[in-house]
Write a structure and sequence with these properties.
The chain has 372 residues and is α+β, with helices and mostly antiparallel strands. Strands 2-1-3-7-6-5-4 form a seven-stranded mixed beta sheet, with helices on both faces. Helix 9 runs antiparallel to helix 10 and helix 10 runs antiparallel to helix 11. The radius of gyration is 35 Å and the shape is rod-shaped. The two termini are 68 Å apart.
Length: 372
């Protein structure tokens, strides 16, 4: 299958870009102009090469080609004009460039001639005091990575998933950073999957809360009327969003851990196996969330149905009790002159007593049978 994919990538004609050509990266751009480049640095022997000012991607790549090492460029939501010049400088494939700029991509791993293109979905748990039908539980973002022999480019979309702290941690571990761009790719994958684990634990707490509310007995040990079904459905939708980020990423992580790749250091490749294991555990957990929420939703609907049946039985019971005096009053309300007991002095109290006894008997019978 891998050979077939490679052949397809080799013979597949390049799709013409829908963007206008903005020319090469402008190294003379005014530094005060806002830029999508968050950080650009050259790393040699696992250490960041210190410079007096922020390097442009063009200058950083020129240093790497002259002195060795690799360049790591971080961008946040670049425009077409900002990224097209960088793409030309590093020879990025037009299809990958188009995906990186447009965002909203499925997690995946694509191999081109001299680079790997990896898409990660970042997940952030949204804190909330109470789960409602409109609660946003997870926020998603994207991190797209271009891994080359001497460069690593990250394109981030969304307000979450900052890589600044990760870059600082890697800079504190020069032995790992000396392995090159593949070490950065592993660290980002590990960072993203660790975020999945934390979000899964938080979502588990929300599901446990809803489950407790659904299955907690009502007053007097009666069947609970359940919770608002919209809350459960909203939680299910958020879990589905979580699932879309986790499930497609498992196969790329398995490929990175099992299949030798020219751009991935052999010492780093074995660490992807640990990332794939953690991701598989999160995927199983998310699939379990989906099934559990289905069961909770069905149980909640069943409880609502049982509660409605109880209400109907109570209404029916009281209607049966009221039917007795209604019938008696209907009979004695007829305007006939020769009706029995109408001129009897004890007629009224006797009829009322008999009516009360009958009603009391019906009430006790229905209560004994659990209808009241």
């Amino acid at each position: 299958m891998s050979m077939i994919r490679d052949l397809r990538a080799a013979v597949r004609p390049s799709r013409p870009s829908l963007r206008k050509d903005t020319g090469p990266y402008d190294a003379t751009r005014d530094p005060s102009t806002p830029s999508a480049v968050v950080d650009c640095a050259v790393y040699r022997d696992g250490r960041r090469v210190q410079t007096d000012q922020q390097l442009s991607p063009h200058e950083a790549m020129r240093q790497v080609r002259r002195d060795g090492g690799f360049v790591w460029i971080g961008l946040h939501e670049p425009s077409e004009a900002e990224f097209s010049g960088i793409a030309g400088e590093f020879g990025l494939h037009p299809l990958a460039v188009e995906d990186a700029v447009q965002a909203h991509q499925r997690p995946k791993l694509e191999r081109y001639d001299d680079s790997l293109f990896t898409v990660f979905k970042t997940i952030h748990y949204v804190e909330h005091d109470e789960l409602t039908a409109n609660s946003e539980i997870v926020e998603t973002g994207e991190v797209m990575c271009f891994t080359g022999r001497d460069f690593f480019i990250t394109v981030r979309h969304g307000g979450q998933g900052s890589l600044r702290a990760l870059r600082h941690r890697l800079q504190d571990d020069p032995e790992l950073l000396a392995k090159g761009p593949s070490a950065v790719l592993h660290s980002i994958a590990d960072h993203v999957v660790d975020g999945y684990v934390a979000v899964a634990d938080a979502v588990q707490d929300d599901i446990d809360e809803v489950e407790t509310e659904v299955f907690t007995p009502g007053r007097g040990g009666k069947v609970s009327r359940g919770v608002d079904s919209a809350r459960i459905y909203q939680l299910k939708r958020e879990v589905l969003e979580f699932k879309r980020a986790v499930a497609p990423l498992l196969r790329p992580m398995q490929l990175l851990s099992e299949r030798p790749m020219r751009l991935v250091d052999p010492d780093i490749q074995k660490y992807f196996r640990d990332v794939a294991d953690h991701l598989a555990r999160v995927q199983e957990q998310v699939l379990g969330f989906d099934e559990l929420l289905n069961s909770i939703l069905q149980a909640n609907l069943a409880q609502a149905s049982v509660a409605q049946n109880e209400d109907m039985r109570k209404i029916t019971s009281w209607a049966a009790i009221i039917a007795v005096p209604t019938m008696v009053c209907g009979v004695y309300g007829m305007n006939f002159d020769y009706m029995p007991e109408t001129h009897w002095k004890l007629g009224y109290p006797v009829i009322m007593a008999i009516t009360g006894v009958i009603c009391l008997g019906i009430h006790r019978t229905l209560k004994r049978n659990g209808w009241l």
